[in-house]
Amino acid sequence: MHKFHTFSAKKLAVTLTGVLTALALLCGAGAAAAAGTPPAEVAGKTFIIGTDTTFAPFEYRKDGELTGIDMDLVRDIAAKQGFTVEIKSLGFDAALQALQSNQVDGVIAGMSITDERKLIFDFSDPYFDSGVQMAVAEDDNAITGYAELAGKTVVAKRGSEGETFANSIKDTYGFSVKSLSDSATMYDDVKAGNSVAVFDDYPVLAYGISQNNGLKAVTEKEQGSSYGFAVNKGQNPELLAAFNTGLAELKADGQYQDILDTYLKAPTTAADSGFFTLLVDSLPALMKGLALTLVATGLSILIALILGVLFGFFTVSQSRILRGISAVYVSIFRGTPLLVQAFFFYFGLPQLTGQSIDVLTAGVLTLSLNAGAYMTEIVRGGIQSVDPGQTEAGRSLGLGYVTTMRRIVLPQAVKIMTPSFINQFVMTLKDTSLLAVIGFAELTYQGQQIYASNFRTGETLLIVAALYFIVINLLTMLSNKLDKRFNK
After folding, report:
1. Which of 83-92, 116-125, 325-334 has the lowest average pLDDT?
2. Mean pLDDT lowest for which of 58-67, 124-133, 138-147, 431-440?
3. pTM assigned to the model
4. pLDDT tens across 123-175, in order?
5. Which of 338, 355, 421, 480 has CA 20 to 30 A from 48's CA?
6. Which CATH superfamily, name and number, covers 275-486?
7. Full 3-state SS string of the chain
8. Domain coordinates of the chain in residue numbers?
9. In terms of CATH, what superfamily is 46-127+228-264?
């Protein structure tokens, strides 16, 4: 009996010690949390966040740097919660596709929280209550409300609250809705007279008007939904929780309101500046884009040349298997649009393989495989255009197939193929502009970033076109000189 009581006392002491230790740990954890210690689930981690490219004042570029309400919020929340963010400026549609293919961990892009999207994504607590307004060209005095829209076309951003609202009233007022990808393009569509009005989120529209986008608002703000930060459904719950915690802290200490006031309270009207001022201000970003364009083009052409020569020889091979492989390759990459291929390699392939791929790799892969298919046909055409008698003459002299090709056929075929190779080089350089849709920061992408914030689309695109023209002509002249030197 005495032994039993001794054991129970010891057991009780151990239990009490354990309880006290647990309480101490909990108190310590609570004190650490109260002191602002970041949660262990996200502390020290880096998350890739996708965003839009042209949704000022929520995300846009100023002096080449990505800024705006969304950018300030996510960066300040990350700082408070002890993690870091890498921002990928992709465009709204591309950002959502990147999230679904796990190319990014989350998306913050002025994204409205809707029941349909909740089926696919998990949302944070709302961080901004939006609304919709309608605007027309500033010299248009005929349209003052929805009643004047009968029989006309309006424009809205694809997937936005403005598009949803416009579609909800179009039958009542008898107008049609056209959807475009970004605000700057929509505003230009109205100014060009292709659409009579635009429906857009009111803070975005107000910012654009303050930046001389050539429009004026003609309706009061309609009630809209709220914006939220999104992750894939069932994934990254710790990131979502950290965002909510950080957002609450920003609201509590007043930083949240400071951020909104910075971008929304009495927006400063942009001063008109001349073309040369725009040129000087834009050149740093455009030259950076041009450098990436040349890198992607150079890598793609090198790989495409190797593929073209390899599959070109397969095409004229005596082996049915090799000819079949070449025919399938050429058919696939010549028979599908380059844009579809870019989306597949950047968004589709990661979903199929579970492995992410960076935008430069996806871009080079797309361009090289596409250009390689065309170069295959150039090689095939060049070889087959050499008189068959040349091959027969070589074989009659006792030369083998490989030697005949290397010594007799190829030297003549190269002279025939060179002009086509130069043309394909130029085509590939221009095709890099299509990679802007997957967020590759080449020349066209940089131009989009510039006119998204200053709304001077025509002038910006003129500068971009001039840069393409200069570079392509310089490279064409260089290629022609090399052609004359080596193919005398």
Report:
1. 83-92
2. 58-67
3. 0.72
4. 999 999 888 999 999 999 999 999 999 999 999 988 888 898 999 999 999 99
5. 338
6. MetI-like (1.10.3720.10)
7. CHHHHHHHHHHHHHHHHHHHHHHHHHHHHHHHHHCCCCCCCCCCCEEEEEECCCECCCEEEECCEEECHHHHHHHHHHHHHCCEEEEEECCHHHHHHHHHCCCCCEECCCCECCHHHHCCEEECCCCEEEEEEEEEECCCCCCCCHHHHCCCEEEEECCCHHHHHHHHHHHHHCCEEEEECCHHHHHHHHHCCCCCEEEEEHHHHHHHHHCCCCEEECCCCEEEEEECCEEECCCCHHHHHHHHHHHHHHHHHCHHHHHHHHHHCCCCCCCCCCHHHHHHHHHHHHHHHHHHHHHHHHHHHHHHHHHHHHHHHHHCCCCHHHHHHHHHHHHHHHCCCHHHHHHHHHHHHHHHHCCCCCHHHHHHHHHHHHHHHHHHHHHHHHHHHCCHHHHHHHHHCCCCHHHHHHHHHHHHHHHHHHHHHHHHHHHHHHHHHHHHHHCCCCHHHHHHHHHHHHCCHHHHHHHHHHHHHHHHHHHHHHHHHHHHHHCC
8. 46-127+228-264, 130-225, 275-486
9. Periplasmic binding protein-like II (3.40.190.10)
